[in-house]
Amino acid sequence: MVLKLYLDLMSQPSRALYILFKSAKCDFEKKLVDLRKGEHFTDEFTAINRLQKVPVIEHDGFILTESVAIIKYLSRENLIPDVLYPKESKLQARIDEFLEWQHLGLRQHCAMFFRVKILDPTFTGKAPDVKTLLGYEKRMISALETFEKHWLQNGTQFVAGDTITVADLLAACELEQPRAAGYEPADNFKGISTWWKKVPEHFNPYYDEAHVVINKVTEKNKLAAKL
C-alpha cells in the first residue's frame, strides 16, 4: 500500500489530515506543496488535482481531493480508528452534520479574516481597508458565537458527543487561523477555551508538530502589532 498526502501546513484541512494520519499511525508519504510559491498551480500538481488545492491523497494510484471526502474514504478503508470517525449510524451522522456545516459556517469566516488581514497585505504590500476588515471580523465573531452556542453548549464535552472525533480536530485547526491574525477565540469565548485545550492534549505531539509554521506566523504578527 502506498499512501501519499499532498499538503501545506499553512492550510487548515492539511494540518488536520496530517495530525489524523500521524495519530492513526498511518504509513504515508508527506508531499509538501508550497502554496506561497504557487506550487499548486504547476502542471505537475494540476495533473494530481485539477482544482489546484490541498490537501490531496493518492492511495495506490487512487487520487482523492477534499478533506471531508478523504476522511470518509479513510474510514471505509479502515485506515483511521473508528473512535475518531465511528461507523455507528447516528453518531457518524452527528459528525457529518458538523462537517457539512463547518465549510460555510466556520471555515469560510475564519479563513477570510486571516486572508484579508494577513495574506492579502503580504502579497500586495497594501494594508487592508479598515471598514472591509471590520466586516470580516464581525462575520467571523458571529460564526464563533454560533459554533460555541450550537456545537459546544449542547451538554457534551466535544462537538459530536462525549468522545473526541475528527469534528473536533477540523474545528480546532480552523480556529488557529484567526489566532494567527491576532484574534484569540479562546480569550473571547469561555466555552471555546475550555473545549479547545482538550484537542491538542488528545492529539499531541502531532498537533503541535503540525502547527509549528502557523505558530511562527502568530508570533511574528504579535511582535509586529507591538511595534
TrEMBL record:
Keyword tRNA processing in annotation: no
Family annotation (InterPro entries): Glutathione-S-Trfase_C-like, Glutathione-S-Trfase_C_sf, Glutathione_S-Trfase, Glutathione_S-Trfase_N, GST_C, GST_C_Theta, GST_N_Theta, GST_Theta
Main location: cytoplasm
UniProt key word Cytoplasm: yes
GO biological process: glutathione metabolic process
Stretches assigned to the GST C-terminal domain: 88-224
Compartments, record wording: Cytoplasm
GO cellular component terms, semicolon-separated: cytoplasm
Catalytic reactions on record: RX + glutathione = an S-substituted glutathione + a halide anion + H(+)
Single Gene Ontology MF annotation: glutathione transferase activity
Domain GST N-terminal: 1-82
Record-linked Pfam families: GST_C, GST_N
Keywords: Cytoplasm, Transferase
Family note: Belongs to the GST superfamily. Theta family.
The name this protein goes by in its record: Jg24105 protein
